Amino acid sequence: MTAMPARPAAPAVFCTIVPPHLLDRLARAADPAIAAAARRTLVADAANRTARRLTTVIGARPVAAPEGAPAAKPHRTVYDAGHRTGLPGAQVRAEGAEPTGDATVNRAYAGLGATFQLFLDAYGRDSINGSGLPLDATVHYDKDYGNAFWNGEQMVFGDGDGEIFLDFTIPVDVIGHELAHGVTQYTANLAYFGQPGALNESMSDVFGSLVKQYALGQTATEADWLIGAGLLAPDVRGVALRSMKAPGTAYDDDVLGKDPQPAKMADYVRTGSDNGGVHINSGIPNHAFYLFATALGGHAWERAGQVWYDVLAGGDLAVDADFADFARLSVAAVGERFGEGGAEDDAVRKAWSTVGVPTA
Question: CB of 176 within 8 A of CB of 212?
């Protein structure tokens, strides 16, 4: 492969679960309702991307755990935007409050808790910043909004258009994926372009999947390894947004198109869209993790997930790290935690070798 072109300074990260290349395609759909919803989503995403850059310039509002709040406990607040775009919206459920009559609110609340619990129980991390950061989420954002995002401070969920996308709180791994962008923000802070950007997306897919597996008590063999299962409307030919088990097979639909993710470096996609294909080429490290986890068996968050967390939060992963950098660090992390020459060492080396990423 040829060397990656020089990368400009990393912009502030605005992370969405549905990549812009998919929305661009939907914006050109023959069905005017589908096209209009996609265009509205693209406009909203552009505005939020700009707001995220401004936050970087002027500084984010300080956020801390409520005074007197117990450590290592979630501090969740869910808001309702009322199909408008002002954030955070009207508070509808606070930490410890009873479920509301709105299933979307309750799913968001539960998903925040499931994500918090995985990082605390499996990795000893107190919320996404490691210091009890409150977890805020806004539901019912905009009209027919076809996305969910982490804006650097909170989660936001759209209801979907009902034609392509359903409610974005339905898959708990979508919630875990977006909050994991926050974990990356507070640890390696991987740049959102090219291979480091694809690693950024892959970290969220990995931990989003682990949130679902942990919540369901699934082993690596039992897990479906899909990101966004249940999000696509019934008439869409597809099962999810992405597949870690078989990248490139999540959907193949006349309107949505075909899943473009590669599983190996030989098929790496070079593109100027989507920040250099961050949602596309993430299929390569995603598949490496799947191979590593399933080779080890058992619960994927225990050994495989621990290694990935060690690399992400260990302090040696550079902001502009490429796949090979992460692969080398994962081998080192296995050696430090499990020793060299064992089942974990063999599995991680084989996983990266299978997807065509060197570890030496």
Answer: yes
Give the pair of three-digit tokens for residue 246. 């078989």
Higher pLDDT, 232 or 273: 232
234: helix, coil or strand?
Answer: coil
pLDDT tens digits, one per residue of 191-232: 999 999 999 999 999 999 999 999 999 999 999 999 999 999
What lies within 8 Å, CB to CB, of 169 at 6+ separation is 104, 107, 108, 111, 139, 148, 157, 175
- The residue annotated as part of the active site, out of 75, 140, 177, 178, is 178
Q: What are the helix (H) ranges across the chain?
A: 20-26, 32-58, 103-123, 172-186, 194-216, 274-277, 283-296, 304-313, 323-338, 343-354
| Nearest Cα residue to 16 out of 314, 274, 267 | 274
pTM above 0.90, yes or no: yes
* Contact between 182 and 308 (Cβ < 8 Å): no
pLDDT of 7? 34
Q: What is the b/e burial string over 147-169, where b = at least 16 CB atoms within 10 angstroms of the residue's CB?
A: bbbbbbbbbbbbbbbebbbbbbb
Model pLDDT for residues 37-77, shown as the tens digit of each residue = 999 999 999 888 776 554 433 344 444 555 555 578 999 99
In single-letter form, the type of residue at position 186 comes to Y
Phi and psi, residue 348, nearest 5°:
-70, -40
Task: Point out the catalytic residue in the list 177, 181, 279, 299.
Answer: 279
Evaluate the omega torsion of the peptide bond into residue 11 and state whether it is cis, within 30 degrees of 0.
no
Q: Give 247-265 as a DSSP string.
A: TT-SBEETTTEE----SSG
> Are the C-beta atoms of 100 and 107 separated by less than 8 Å?
no
The HSE-up count of residue 356 (CA atoms within 13 Å, CB side) is: 11
Residue 178 annotated as catalytic: yes
Pairwise CA distance, residues 294 & 221, whole Å? 6
302 in active site = no
